[in-house]
Amino acid sequence: MKTSITILSDNQPSEGFESEHGLSWLVETSGSGSILLDAGASDLFLRNAQKMNIDLSSVKEIALSHGHWDHGNGLTFLKSKRVTCHPEVFRKRFSRNGTRSVGLSFTEEQIRGKLTFRKTSTPLFLNERVVFLGEIPRKFEFENSPTYFTLDNGNPDLLPDDSALAVIHNDELIVLTGCAHSGVCNIVDYAKQVTGITKINTVMGGFHLKHINHQTEETISCLKSMGVDHVLPSHCTSFEVVNEFQKHWAESVITTGRVITFS
Ligand SMILES: [Zn+2]
Ligand SMILES: [Zn+2]
């Protein structure tokens, strides 16, 4: 059994590849096809794929982790694909002071002719080995930190649409997060519950942790107590926090152009 994650867009570059504040990863599972997780903030994921001789035209399934610009704006460069996402991804949403739009740059009506949207708040298998988790139950108190975002009515945006993928690999799980606004530990805990698989091989993606604070420390000890073998924070995780995780899990930094393989 082989699984590979190709980093098409992320915040840090490998030599010869561009990066951006965004996330787009290609998830390939032997025997069950390929799924694109997010499309980044621009067409960078397509340009990096071209550099790597990856033909994305054959990839028909996309999972959108949540409705933020840095994960979904790249969708405008695609057509004839199906996007699985939470029903609330098209919310109008803003930065905390309400001045800057942080939602998707297009409405559902504007993109409907190019892509089809399959919305679910409950878990859905995208193929035999990849589960879109839907809405993530908020279980751990330490992950209920104040939100950075607001809705157009001024109320806080708690990102109910923030989801993730669980990939089954040799009876273990590889958990892929977008921004993990719903909490990394909440996501991993739910992935275990949904799949019935308790062994976590790897957790990787944006963790949305900016400082070494109570939440970061609790996240590390929670993932340790869950027995996670590999943890690779990227994207919206600060350098400081990535360094802190590396003290506990000696992994290299995720960079665009990398292919992470599991066999
Ligand atoms: Zn993000
Ligand atoms: Zn986000």
Q: How much strand?
A: 25-35%
Main sheet properties: 7 strands, mixed
Helix share bin: 10-25%
**Rg:** 17 Å
> Secondary-structure element order, as H and E?
EEEHEHEEHEEEEEEHEHEHE
Overall outline: globular
Q: What is the straight-line distance between the termini? A: 6 Å
Strand order of the largest sheet: 7-5-4-3-2-1-15
How would you characterize the overall build of this protein?
- With 263 residues, this protein is of the alpha/beta class.
- It is built from 6 helices and 15 strands.
- It has helices spanning 44-51, 69-72, 108-111, 184-195, 214-225, 239-248; strands spanning 3-9, 24-29, 33-37, 61-63, 81-85, 93-95, 115-119, 124-127, 130-132, 149-151, 164-169, 172-177, 200-206, 230-234, 259-262.
- It has a 7-stranded mixed β-sheet with strand order 7-5-4-3-2-1-15. It has a 6-stranded mixed β-sheet with strand order 8-9-11-12-13-14. It has a two-stranded antiparallel ribbon with strand order 6-10.
- The longest helix has 12 residues, at 184-195.
- It starts with a strand and ends with a strand.
- Bound molecules: zinc ion (2 copies).
- The site of one zinc ion has 8 residues, from α2.
